[in-house]
Amino acid sequence: MNEQQRSIVHMDLDTFFVSCERLEDSRLNGLPILIGGASDRGVVASCSYEARKFGIHSAMPMKMAKERCPEAIVISGNSANYTKYSRMVTDIIQDAVPVVEKSSIDEFYMDLSGMDRFFGCYKYAGELRRKIMKETGLPISFGMSVNKTVSKIATGEAKPNNQMNIIDGAEKLFLNPLSVQKIPMVGLKTYQTLCNLGVKRIGTIQQMPLEMMESVLGQNGIAIWKKAQGIDNSPVIQYNERKSISSERTFEKDTIDVVRLKAIVFALAENLVFQLRKEKKVCACVTVKIRYSDFQTKTLQQRIPYSAADHEIIPMVMNLFEKLHNRRLLVRLVGVRMSELVHGNYQMRLFDEGSRLATLYHSMDDIRERFGERAIQRAIGMQVKRIGHFNPFRGETPMIVANRIV
């Protein structure tokens, strides 16, 4: 379908964590709220609009945020509730829209192309927004245009708790006066580079030659230039709750060594959680699989709040293995699967630990990136010589067969 005929909607739940907390306790309404680690070493995961008036933003050190707004209420957060409300909204949208992409725990893209002849896309999206607010109590905003980039920026301009439609042909005019920081792929470093060139508004990029942007920022410069012109042909990718990554180990010789089996299951889980963080994803379901020597296969799964944190997921995996391994037979295969994946921030489950665990995971992941995925590991998994290298997000085979165990 031609881009000019598309109707793309971007919906984003407003200050999602804060809104969930206010549903649980209405006394928080209208007050400055900080979600995150309560200690001075913690970080702000989310904050209310009342707190933002003091210059507070996500990822700010909690100590600095409390200095700027001493009267702010600090809440450690309840990720189980956030997961519950996210699923409620997802179910409503999936029932109403033919093509929906869940890009994060609180963010959705929808392709309503072709629905104008039946409903009127903007009217339909508005009715869907009202239905979400009525059935969940959560405020939500959306932007609509012919592509994902302009719709996402429009959502930001519509907030809080509102909606906006950028009609076909008005994309450049809408983007012209906005800060270049509004372009989704422009981070702090890129923004500073552009500011050094005297470029602070999208309209300036619109007037620049493509070759100049390419010479300064390479391929990213080309992408940013196109987005500044309101050009984005990327499709809405259908969201599938069953999207997953998995890793299995089939033994050269069946084993009944429980210590060895636990070590392998632990190592498989540890590797998969690293892959989640590497791809900036979180999961909401973990599954453990055992195949015995008589080829009888058993699986057990558990739904969890969205996470990609070792201390949350790995104990759950090991608990599932303990429950599942209940036959005195040789084991032929063990496996771990993590499903219901969405893009997300693994720090969501680090509220109580503040920045300490976030720093630890970042350091561990950096070592693995530089020296290999088994360069740093916990003691329980050290007897597993290697897990194997694959990228489950790029279509590579996640099955691990007959690896040597030391």
Automatic annotation (TrEMBL):
SUPFAM superfamilies: DNA/RNA polymerases, Lesion bypass DNA polymerase (Y-family), little finger domain. The keyword Nucleus does not apply. This is DNA polymerase IV. It is an enzyme of class 2 (transferase). Its EC number is 2.7.7.7. Mg(2+) binds at D12, D106. Belongs to the DNA polymerase type-Y family. Residues 8-187 form the UmuC domain. It comes from Fluviicola chungangensis. The gene is dinB. Its main location: cytoplasm. Binds 2 magnesium ions per subunit. It holds the Pfam family IMS. Poorly processive, error-prone DNA polymerase involved in untargeted mutagenesis. Copies undamaged DNA at stalled replication forks, which arise in vivo from mismatched or misaligned primer ends. These misaligned primers can be extended by PolIV. Exhibits no 3'-5' exonuclease (proofreading) activity. May be involved in translesional synthesis, in conjunction with the beta clamp from PolIII. It catalyses: DNA(n) + a 2'-deoxyribonucleoside 5'-triphosphate = DNA(n+1) + diphosphate. One of its GO terms (cellular component) is cytosol. GO terms for biological process: DNA repair; DNA-templated DNA replication; error-prone translesion synthesis; SOS response.
